[in-house]
């Protein structure tokens, strides 16, 4: 039986950590170390898959209980306007681990490796004196690899989240309780749940939820926007998951299962947080929790991700360091992005960022300092789609599609009324086009990396006349 506290386990950790895999042949040289190791914090980076921003009890969701993530929220700083760089697993993860946009990492769809011109977080931090350890889903390109350049990988088998997440959290628990050494650590705990919900749409039609107490999920029914016909055709075709034939109880059942999967993830996160506190490292460890993308959960008649509505592209982003960062703080005014993770960790570690990082360090905001902030954030999706989120509006454009989208996010947070062809908003549309043009102009796109399996035939079927190679 697996015992995370055994001497064999400790020997494995010590042996494996001696070989970090941080060789940098064929790419940029590492940054110069600028802060003494003793003065630098540790990092615990908790990454979830398909966790919606509002699927947490601390944020007021009555259908789910997330006491462990709530712990981080209650003793940390929550960014309430946090956006993924892409509502698809691999592209979003490539940004989180490089600070670059997906079109720059070459990961424009699932199952692609990060382009060799980009350095990943493990490479950068291991070359700057950090002990870098990874456990859980990677998906760049493989879901559960046994080796990641720059990281020591704690193997955890393969399978869906309900089978692997417990092993991931116990790996991290064992590491935290048994580690030794003077160097600071960067530990990535990558939880797969609630991504297992992706497998439910193909099964739920044949399931009978009548015996479950689902009536309390009174508002968990599909929601169709007022002018739903005014949506880009590209978005409709490529989503392909509009289940208007489901009964109300089947829709509720879908939500019921999703929230249970969120609770499974929360339990595994709790195990890792407890281990951090028991290890004696908590006082000098910054915890960051976020997700690669969200889950539609029936909103806009969708399930899954794959589009630019907030339920899919807006994600939690919590930073906790008790005594150093404000507690129970909710920031509703600053737009943040997945590319900010790399910049923030580098700032706190006292090392320079990798070249061409697109993120901004959140450290000034976390420490309550006044600073000029960005005007907007951008998300890529479906290879040809782009979203611009400004303080008040969201603009969406698909290459070659006549229909654009503009939503007033203050007056219409549910994104139900498309304003792009309303003459009253003509100048606002033009301004957001300007933002997008300026953003695109400073990016350094690369040829997409090779896809290992995946959905390439599906993408090619719908993506025509695109400036981006598929």
For this entry, give a set of tags:
choline-sulfatase activity, about 475 residues, Sulfatase_CS, Alkaline Phosphatase, subunit A, 13 helices, 14 strands, Alkaline_phosphatase_core_sf, 8-stranded mixed beta sheet, TAT_signal, hydrolase
CATH H level, superfamily name = Alkaline Phosphatase, subunit A
Please give the number of β-strands: 14
Oligomerization: single chain
Distance between the termini: 46 Å
Largest sheet: 8 strands, mixed
CATH hierarchy: architecture? 3-Layer(aba) Sandwich
Tally of domains? 1
What integer is the average pLDDT?
86
Catalogue the unreliable spans: 1-29, 464-470
**Which structural class fits the helix and strand makeup?**
alpha/beta
GO molecular function: choline-sulfatase activity; metal ion binding
Signal peptide: 1-31
Enzyme class: hydrolase
Protein name: Choline-sulfatase
Reconstruct the topology from this structure.
Elements: H1 7-17, E1 42-48, H2 67-74, E2 77-79, E3 82-83, H3 89-96, H4 102-105, H5 121-126, E4 131-136, E5 152-153, H6 161-178, E6 185-190, H7 233-239, H8 248-279, E7 285-291, H9 310-313, E8 317-320, E9 329-331, E10 336-337, H10 340-349, H11 363-366, E11 376-381, E12 385-390, E13 393-398, E14 405-408, H12 426-441, H13 456-462
Parallel strand pairs: 1-6, 1-7, 2-9, 3-10, 4-5, 4-6
Antiparallel strand pairs: 2-8, 7-8, 11-12, 12-13, 13-14
Helix pairs in contact: 6-8
């Amino acid at each position: 039986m697996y015992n995370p506290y055994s001497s064999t386990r400790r020997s494995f950790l010590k042996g494996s950590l001696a070989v970090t895999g941080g060789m940098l042949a064929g790419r940029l040289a590492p940054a110069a170390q600028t802060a003494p190791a003793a003065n630098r914090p540790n990092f615990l980076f908790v990454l979830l898959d398909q966790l919606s921003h509002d699927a947490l009890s601390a944020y007021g969701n009555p259908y789910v209980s997330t006491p462990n993530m709530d712990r981080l929220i209650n003793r940390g700083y929550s960014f309430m306007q946090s956006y993924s760089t892409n509502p698809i697993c691999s592209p979003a993860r490539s940004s989180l681990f490089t600070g670059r946009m997906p079109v720059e990492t070459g990961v424009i769809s699932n199952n692609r490796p990060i382009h060799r011109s980009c350095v990943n977080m493990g490479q950068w931090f291991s070359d700057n004196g950090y002990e870098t350890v990874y456990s859980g889903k990677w998906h760049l390109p493989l879901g559960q690899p046994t080796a990641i350049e720059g990281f020591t990988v704690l193997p955890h088998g393969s399978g869906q989240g309900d089978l692997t997440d417990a092993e991931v959290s116990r790996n991290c628990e064992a590491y935290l309780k048994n580690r030794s050494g003077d160097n600071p650590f960067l530990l990535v705990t990558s939880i797969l749940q609630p991504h297992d919900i992706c497998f439910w749409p193909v099964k739920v039609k044949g399931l009978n939820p009548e015996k479950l107490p689902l009536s309390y999920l009174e508002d968990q029914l599909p929601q169709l926007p007022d002018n739903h016909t005014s949506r880009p055709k590209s978005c409709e075709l490529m989503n392909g998951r509009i289940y208007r034939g489901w009964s109300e109880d089947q829709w509720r059942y879908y939500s019921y299962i999703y929230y249970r999967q969120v609770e499974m993830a929360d339990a595994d996160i709790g195990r890792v947080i407890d281990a951090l506190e028991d290890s004696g490292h908590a006082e000098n460890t910054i915890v960051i929790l976020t997700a690669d993308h969200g889950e539609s959960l029936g909103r806009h008649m969708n399930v899954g991700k794959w589009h630019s509505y907030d339920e899919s592209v807006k994600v939690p982003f919590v930073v906790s360091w008790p005594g150093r960062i404000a507690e129970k703080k909710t920031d509703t005014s600053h737009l943040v992005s997945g590319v900010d993770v790399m910049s923030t960790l580098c700032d706190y570690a006292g090392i320079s960022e990798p070249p061409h990082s697109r993120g901004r360090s959140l450290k000034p905001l976390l420490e309550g300092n006044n600073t000029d902030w960005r005007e907007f954030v951008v998300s890529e999706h479906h290879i040809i789609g782009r979203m611009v989120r400004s303080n008040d509006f969201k603009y969406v454009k698909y290459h070659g599609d006549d229909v654009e989208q503009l939503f007033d996010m203050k007056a219409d947070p549910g994104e139900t009324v498309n304003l792009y062809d309303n003459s009253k908003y003509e100048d606002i549309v033009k301004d957001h086009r300007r933002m997008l043009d300026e953003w695109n102009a400073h990016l350094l796109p690369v040829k997409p990396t090779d896809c290992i399996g995946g959905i390439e035939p599906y993408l090619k079927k719908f993506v025509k006349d695109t400036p981006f190679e598929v």
